[in-house]
Specification:
By secondary structure, the chain is an alpha/beta fold. It has 28 helices and 27 strands.
Length: 777
C-alpha cells in the first residue's frame, strides 16, 4: 500500500481556497503542523492535494475546476469542505452542491476540535476510497492468478466464504486423491500457541478428536505441523511410525491407519499463518510430482483465501464509506445527504403510486444560548439527547435526520400498501399530531453541565408530493414554514403555504438592509425621561434605538429587533447602543446634568460571552458603570435561572446597576428574587393602565409590588404613565418615593431635544439648589 499519497508525504496535503486571508491564516493556526497546507485552485499542484477547503465565493468562481479535479482523482475521492459564515443563510444553490462539488459544510466561527474532526473525517473518507481502489486492483490480480491455476480451481472460485472454501477443498482433496484425512488449521497467538482446526474431511477425521496441536517449542509444537508453521516450509513424513518428533502420536496414527503425511504452510498477506495437512495410509505416498501438485493446490488456497478476505475488506470499506457519507458523526443519525437520496426515491415512487408523506423541519429554540454559555461539549451532549428523544417520538416507519447545527428533519412516510387512509387531510393531521408530540417531548427539561435547560422547537411542515418536485425543494419549503413559526414566537409548528415565500423574501431583504445599516451606523438613540413622581424632575433616561429611513420615516424596534436577535446582529448592535449611551451620558455629565442611563439587555446578549468584562470595557472610558442601569425582562430571568443569576452577579460586580423590566408579567420566583443582584423593579404598564379604572385592582397590585420592593430595599419605576391621575395615584401608593416613565411626561426624544428640556428644567431650579444626589441603589 505504499502508493497512498499520505504515506509519500507523511502528512496530508490540504489545499485552501479562501478569499478571506484572515480565515486562511486562522485555518493554518488551528491545524498546526499536523498537515501540509498549500494554496489550491491556482497552480498545477492541485492533483497532489488530499483535501480542498474553500469558501462560497471561490467555490462558485472555480466550480468547473473543482469538478474537473474530482473527476481526475476518481475513483479516489477528492473531498471538498465548504467554509461558510454561521451568521448567514446557506444559499439553496450551495446546498444543492452537496455530493457534487462539496462533501461537507462547516459554519464558522467554530472550535479547533470541530474543525479538526471535520477535516479528519474527510481525509479518512479519501483514504478509505484509496484503499478500496487498491483492494479492487488487488482483487483483479488475484482473480487473474487463480485462472491460471488448475488444481481445485472450481472449488476456490465458487466458494463464497472461508468456511465453504476450506470445507469443500478438504473434501475435494480426499475425494479426488483418495487420501484418508485432510485438514486446514490456523495458528493462534494465545500464550500456549495452539493450532485451531478450521476444516477437515476423510474417513480418519476421528484422528483429530481431542488432539492438541501447537506451533510453539513445547511437546504440542514439536511435530511436523508445528515445525512447518515456525519455519514456513513444507514438511513431509514418509513413515509416521518412524518419525521421532511424532512419537507421541504414533499409536493414535496406527489406530486410524495413517502411515505418511505432508504439511504445507499457508502464508497470507495479513492475519495468522495456517497449514494444510494431508494424511495417507500408504507409506512414502508423497512423491516429488505429487508434492508439486499439492504445493500448487496450497498456493491456490492461499490465493483464494486472500481473494475472499480482500473482497470482504473491500465490502467493509465500501460500507464504511457509505456510512460516513450518509451519517451524522455526532448523533449517528442519517444526514441530509441520506435524506435527499431517500426522499428523491420516494418522490419518484409517488409518480406511479399513492405514496405520500411530510417533511418536518425542526429548529431548536434557545439552543445557541446553551452552546455559547456552557461550551460545545455540553451542547453536543444535548444534541445527542435530542436525537434520541426524536427517535423515541416518531413512528417506526418515520426517519429522523440531523440536518446540521441545531436543525433536525423528520421524514414522515405513508404507503397506502401498508393500509390506512392516505388523503391529504389525513397526512396533514398526522404531521401536525407528530409535530405536537415533538414539541412536547423536547420541552421536557435537559440536565447537562450541572444545570437544568429548557429547549423549545420551531417546526415547519411540507407535504410530498404537493410542496415540491424534488427533495431540495421540499426541505426548503419546510424550512420557510419553520422560519415563520420561529418568527411568530417559536415553540410551535406551521404548515407551508405559498404566501410564506413572499414573507421569507421580505425578511431576507430586511436582514440585508439591517447589515448595511449596522455597518454604515445608520441607527440612532432616543432618550425617554424617567422622572421623580413628586417633583416631576428628570432623574434618569432610558436609551431606545431608532432606525431612520431614507423617506423620513423612523422604524421602531419592534419592526426590526426580532431579525437582529435571530441573525446574531444583537451582539454588535447591543454593544453600539451601550457605548453610544455611555458617550452621551458623559457629555451630559460634563454639562452638569447628572443623570443615570437605562439600557435594555436581551437574553441573547447575556449569553454572548464575557458580557460583564466586555460591557465594562465599553462603558468605563466614558462614565463609571454605576451610572448605567441594565434592564432585563422578568421572562429572561426564568429561561435559565441559575445561569442568568451568575451573569447578573458578574455584571453587578463590574459596578452596573440592574433592573427587572416589565415586572409582574412573568413567573419569577419571589424566593429567588431576593438573591438576585438587582436594584430596581420596573412595574409593567399593564398595572399602571388599570389605575383609576372602576372595580380595578391595579392600585392594590402596584401597592403590593412597591411594598415588596421596599422590604427588599429595591427602587421602583412605574412604566406607561399616560395621565396625571395615574401619577397622583402612584404618589399615594408609593409614599412619594417612586419614579415614573411614560408619554404623560414625555416620549423618547433625540439627544438635542432632551438637552433643551434639561436646560429649561435647570433654569427654573431655585438658586443655590444643590444637584440631586444619586440614589444608593
Amino acid at each position: 500500500m505504499t502508493s497512498y499519497k499520505y504515506q509519500r508525504h507523511e502528512q496530508p496535503v490540504i489545499g485552501i481556497a479562501l478569499s478571506n486571508r484572515a480565515n486562511a491564516n486562522l485555518l493554518r493556526r488551528m491545524l498546526g503542523h499536523d498537515v501540509l497546507i498549500q494554496e489550491a485552485l491556482f497552480n498545477d499542484a492541485d492533483l497532489d492535494t488530499d483535501l480542498i477547503v474553500a469558501d462560497t465565493a471561490l467555490l462558485q468562481h472555480h466550480h468547473q475546476k473543482i469538478l474537473e479535479l474530482r473527476n481526475q482523482a476518481a475513483p479516489t475521492i477528492l473531498p471538498v469542505l465548504l467554509v461558510t459564515d454561521s451568521r448567514s443563510q446557506i444559499p439553496p444553490r450551495i446546498i444543492a452542491e452537496l455530493g457534487i462539488s462539496v462533501d461537507d459544510i462547516l459554519r464558522i466561527p467554530t472550535t479547533q476540535a470541530e474543525m479538526k474532526s471535520r477535516i479528519n473525517n474527510l481525509l479518512r473518507l479519501r483514504d478509505l476510497s484509496r484503499q478500496q481502489e487498491h483492494s479492487r486492483r488487488q482483487l483483479m490480480s488475484v482473480v487473474s492468478a487463480l485462472r491460471t491455476l488448475n488444481a481445485c480451481d472450481s472449488v476456490v472460485v465458487r466458494s463464497n466464504s472461508e468456511e465453504e472454501m476450506l470445507s469443500s477443498l478438504c473434501q475435494t482433496i480426499v475425494d479426488e486423491e483418495n487420501y484418508d484425512l485432510a485438514w486446514v488449521g490456523f495458528a493462534s497467538d494465545q500464550d500456549d500457541k495452539p493450532i485451531q482446526v478450521q476444516a477437515c474431511a476423510g474417513p480418519a477425521t476421528a484422528f483429530l478428536t481431542h488432539l492438541q496441536l501447537g506451533w510453539g517449542q513445547d511437546l504440542k509444537g514439536s511435530g511436523t505441523v508445528g515445525q512447518s508453521l515456525r519455519t514456513g516450509k513444507k514438511r513431509i513424513v514418509n513413515h509416521i511410525d518412524k518419525e521421532p518428533s511424532l512419537a507421541h502420536l504414533k499409536e493414535r496414527a496406527r489406530l486410524h491407519g495413517l502411515a505418511s503425511a505432508i504439511t504445507l504452510p499457508l502464508i497470507f498477506e495479513s492475519g495468522p499463518p495456517g497449514c494444510l495437512t494431508i494424511y495417507s495410509r500408504t507409506p512414502e505416498h508423497f512423491g516429488e510430482e505429487e508434492c508439486q501438485l499439492l504445493e500448487r493446490l496450497a498456493d491456490n488456497l492461499v490465493f483464494g483465501l486472500n481473494a475472499l478476505r480482500t473482497l470482504r475488506e473491500s465490502q467493509r470499506q465500501s460500507d464504511r464509506i457509505q456510512y460516513l457519507a450518509s451519517t451524522d458523526a455526532l448523533t449517528g443519525l442519517p444526514n441530509r445527504r441520506h435524506l435527499i437520496h431517500f426522499l428523491n426515491d420516494k418522490l419518484d415512487a409517488a409518480e406511479h403510486s399513492d405514496t405520500s408523506g411530510a417533511v418536518l423541519f425542526i429548529d431548536l429554540d434557545r439552543f445557541k444560548l446553551i452552546n455559547d454559555a456552557l461550551g460545545h461539549e455540553v451542547g453536543d451532549h444535548v444534541l445527542i439527547e435530542i436525537g434520541q428523544r426524536l427517535l423515541n417520538t416518531v413512528r417506526d416507519a418515520d426517519q429522523v435526520i440531523r440536518q446540521g447545527g441545531d436543525e433536525f428533519l423528520v421524514l414522515m412516510n405513508h404507503d397506502p400498501r401498508q393500509g390506512g387512509v392516505s388523503t391529504r387531510e389525513q397526512i396533514i393531521t398526522n404531521a401536525c399530531t407528530l409535530a405536537n408530540r415533538i414539541i412536547a417531548h423536547l420541552a421536557e427539561p435537559f440536565m447537562e453541565g450541572g444545570f437544568t435547560h429548557h429547549i423549545g422547537a420551531s417546526i415547519g411542515i411540507s407535504l410530498y408530493p404537493d410542496h415540491g418536485r424534488n427533495a431540495t425543494m421540499l426541505i426548503e419549503n419546510a424550512d420557510k414554514a419553520m422560519f415563520e413559526a420561529k418568527r411568530q414566537g417559536g415553540n410551535r409548528y406551521l404548515l407551508f403555504s405559498e404566501d410564506l415565500s413572499a414573507s421569507r423574501q421580505h425578511r431576507f431583504a430586511m436582514e440585508s438592509r439591517l447589515r448595511d445599516a449596522l455597518e454604515n451606523k445608520e441607527f440612532e438613540l432616543h432618550y425617554q425621561p424617567i422622572f421623580e413622581l413628586d417633583s416631576c424632575k428628570i432623574a434618569a433616561v432610558e436609551a431606545l434605538i431608532r432606525w431612520p429611513q431614507a423617506n423620513g420615516d423612523i422604524l421602531m424596534p419592534m419592526a426590526f429587533m426580532p431579525i437582529v436577535e435571530e441573525t446574531g446582529m444583537i451582539k454588535p448592535l447591543g454593544d453600539w447602543v451601550l457605548e453610544t449611551a455611555a458617550q452621551q451620558l458623559s457629555v451630559w455629565h460634563d454639562k452638569g446634568y447628572m443623570l443615570e442611563m437605562a439600557v435594555n439587555v436581551s437574553l441573547n446578549q447575556l449569553h454572548s460571552g464575557c458580557i460583564a468584562e466586555r460591557f465594562a470595557a465599553l462603558v468605563r472610558p466614558h462614565v463609571h458603570p454605576r451610572w448605567i442601569h441594565l434592564e432585563v425582562t422578568e421572562n429572561t430571568l426564568m429561561t435559565d435561572p441559575e445561569t442568568i443569576e451568575t451573569l447578573l452577579e458578574n455584571l453587578h460586580g463590574q459596578g452596573f446597576q440592574l433592573a427587572i423590566d416589565d415586572f409582574g408579567t412573568g413567573y419569577s420566583s419571589l424566593s429567588r428574587l431576593q438573591h438576585l443582584s438587582i436594584q430596581t423593579l420596573k412595574i409593567d404598564r399593564s398595572f399602571i393602565s388599570e389605575l383609576g379604572q372602576p372595580d380595578s385592582k391595579g392600585a392594590a397590585l402596584v401597592s403590593i409590588i412597591h411594598e415588596m420592593a421596599s422590604s427588599l430595599n429595591l427602587h421602583t419605576i412605574a412604566e406607561g404613565i399616560e395621565t396625571d391621575e395615574q401619577r397622583r395615584l402612584l404618589l399615594e401608593t408609593t409614599s412619594r418615593h417612586g419614579w415614573g416613565q411614560g408619554f404623560w411626561f414625555s416620549r423618547a426624544l433625540p439627544a438635542h431635544e432632551l438637552e433643551a428640556r434639561l436646560k429649561g428644567e435647570k433654569a427654573s431650579q431655585p438658586a443655590g439648589h444643590a444637584d440631586r444626589a444619586v440614589p444608593g441603589r
